[in-house]
Amino acid sequence: MNKTITKKTSGLLATLLILSMLVPALASAGIYFSGTFSSNGTVSGNVYFNNDGDTVGDDVYEQNTVTVGVYSKNGDFIQTLQVSKATYEDGTSYYSIPSTVLNSVYDAIYFKYDNSVTENVYRQPSTPCTYCGIGGGGGFIPPTNGSVIEASNGSVNANDLKNAIDKFTEVTIKVNGDSVSIPVSALLNAKEGSILNVVADQGAYILPLDAFDFETLAKQIDSSTDDLKLNIGIKKLTGDDATAVSDAISALGGKQLADAVDFSISIEGKDGKKAAVDSFDRYIKRKLPLSEKPSATGTVALYNTSSKTLSFVPGQLSDTEAEFWRNGNSVYTALELTKSFTDVTGHWGKSYIDLLAGKLIIDGVTDTTFEPDRNITRAEFAALIVRSLGLSNVTSATYFNDVNESDWYAGVVGAAAKAGLVDGYEDGTFRPNAQITREELAAIVVRAYKYAGGKTTVDASTQAQILSKWSDSDRIVWGHQEVAQAIASGLMNGMTDTTLETYGQATRAQTAAMLKRFLSEVNFIE
């Protein structure tokens, strides 16, 4: 989703009751709806028109108001709503749907623009469901919608799924249990951009189908795609396994906000041969229901069943659910942790340090001290950037001749190199114990920003204009573009109003500040 749209809707998603978008050919190109429909007939929300060259919505860019039709669930027209332009930025026009009492109260209404783009909006049910998986918790999934398939016996009928996939680009499978077996044959001809929502009471997967190379996966187990099954597991931990997670959170001084849930995917052939699908080439969204409203320090965490430790996972927490992204499968939970250090009181970086420490991204030098003005090494920062992105360590390959597999930083340096976040020197070294400069810091954070989906484009003219404002920009050695991009994206500030000091060694506090800005910009934290 466009980053600006994500930012605009992140607050609304906490109570959003949108269930599914019916996406005709033009819908994904230009128009998005979001809204809420309450039980007293009040509707409010937003409409977004993206100016991406398609004809849909082209006539609205110069208008201050547009008309959106409202229809009942059986397609009968109810009334029109006049929506007013709120703002225009980055090629997107934002129109606000006012709080309006409709003529009648329906279980569902449709928003339509020009009879070509449609979205369902459902009101809150009279008896809240435990967890309905989409739209901020408490949403209602009607069984009559063709884009929702019930998997009551742990499997999905291939014909039903294929018909839904042919008709909709977003299909939801409602799981009554903790796993479902999906026939891959029904997914092979899915439209570009198709998404499969697998929803259970204890969590949800949002799976882009083009993240799967079914041909390659089938070959792994000597199967054909026609015989291949995709097994999705969303299993709440119980007994000793659940206790181990709770104990790990308590040991940190934290409070658990969600059950620990094991998200897993595997493939299975006709002969029963299986293989796990543990990693993807992109971030995959998941959701967890929360047991209570979190504070600002609430975070999603991965629980490592081998090391019995917890680590940060990129995500956003609303009042009722956690939405998070990672390119691998594991056990996930949500927690709340307040952490501070005695030596950051009164320090300019205290808010950044406390926040990231509470989110399991940065550690103290001791349990009570952080040493905010101490310099940081290249290996230490590689560990932080890998942790911030929720990446797994890579220990099977050595990318640099001065990094040995036995070194504590081998896995994080390997992960950072594999993701294209760090470079070595011409002699093949990484120099892990060298103190990192602000120029290197800016370059790595910009790469991480792009890896996480952030967009930053600075042409030569803009780059020169940005750097000309700083009296010491002539001391940038090689990272002119990266430093300019970091400044343009709001990731980097100067040391003074006129100096960048890119040649200077970065401190732990400066690192925390830049990481916080980066994570907020890509919506990996609130």
Structure notes:
This is S-layer homology domain-containing protein. The protein has 3 domains: about 5-125, Immunoglobulin-like (Sandwich); about 150-335, Chondroitinase Ac, Chain A, domain 3 (Sandwich); about 340-520, no CATH class. Helices cover about 20% and strands about 30% of the residues. It contains 12 helices and 23 strands. The chain has helices spanning about 5-10, 25-30, 160-165, 215-220, 240-250, 350-360, 380-390, 410-420, 440-450, 460-465, 480-490, 510-520; strands at about 20, 30-35, 40-50, 65-70, 75-90, 90-100, 110-115, 115-120, 150, 170-175, 180-185, 195-200, 205-210, 230-235, 255, 260-270, 275, 280-290, 300-305, 310-315, 315, 320-330, 330-335. The chain has an 8-stranded antiparallel sheet. Strands 11, 14, 15, 16, 17, 19, 20 and 23 form an 8-stranded antiparallel sheet that branches. A hairpin with a 3-residue loop joins strand 21 (about 315) and strand 22. It is globular, with a radius of gyration of 25 Å. The two termini are about 15 Å apart.
Précis, in short:
Keywords: Signal. With 526 residues, the protein is of the alpha+beta class. The chain has 12 helices and 23 strands.
List the strand order in the largest sheet: 1-8-7-4-5-6-3-2
- Based on helices, strands and strand pairing, what is the structural class? alpha+beta
**Major sheet summary line:** 8 strands, antiparallel
CATH class of the largest domain: Mainly Beta
CATH topology-level name of the largest domain: Chondroitinase Ac, Chain A, domain 3
User: Number of helical runs?
Assistant: 12
> What is the radius of gyration?
25 Å
Counted up, domains total 3
